[in-house]
Write a structure and sequence with these properties.
The model has no long low-confidence stretch (mean pLDDT 87). The chain has 4 helices and 3 strands; from the N terminus they run H-E-H-E-E-H-H. The chain is elongated. Strands 1-2-3 form a 3-stranded parallel sheet, covered by helices on one side. Strand 1, helix 2 and strand 2 form a beta-alpha-beta unit. The N and C termini lie far apart (53 Å). It has helices spanning 2-10, 41-51, 84-97, 111-127; strands spanning 35-36, 58-60, 77-79. By secondary structure, it is mainly alpha-helical. Keywords: Glycoprotein, Membrane, Receptor, Transmembrane, Transmembrane helix. It holds the Pfam family ANF_receptor. It is a multi-pass membrane protein. One of its GO terms (molecular function) is G protein-coupled receptor activity. Residues 31-117 form the Receptor ligand binding region domain.
Length: 128
């Protein structure tokens, strides 16, 4: 089963590719070195769950969910942007620097909105 999944994502042969002499190209099954993407955390989590079965590294350029920082679960996942935890920490530092005594948190009901608001609440109550 694993070999079937790995070969199906490493080469695509739908019969439309032809050599100059009209023959079919030779398919060489090559090991995938890594995967670049995905752009959303939700998609990256799903892709990472598949790639970890084959020990294939994944590098995301836009996935910021703190969940992806769990190296026991996502040991082959890397990112080029900081986690949402850093953004929440920066917001708390601004609130503290400005000595605000009352803050309301409005967020969208998405994975991102819920996680960032929860991180802010945790950091805010942890610091005060």
């Amino acid at each position: 089963m694993g070999e079937l999944a790995l070969s199906s994502i490493s080469n695509i042969d739908d019969g439309t590719y032809r050599c100059p002499d009209g023959s079919s190209p030779t398919i060489r099954h090559k090991r995938i070195s890594g995967v670049l993407g995905a752009a959303s955390s939700v998609t990256s989590i799903q892709v990472a769950n598949l790639l970890r079965l084959f020990k294939i590294p994944q590098v995301s350029f836009f996935s910021t969910s703190p969940e992806l920082s769990n190296k026991q679960r996502f040991e082959y996942f890397l990112r080029t942007v900081p986690s949402d935890t850093n953004q929440a920490d920066a917001m708390i530092q601004i609130i503290q620097r400005l000595n605000w005594t009352y803050v309301s948190i409005l967020y969208e009901e998405s994975n991102y909105g819920i996680q960032v608001s929860n991180i802010c609440l945790f950091l805010f109550t942890d610091d005060y």
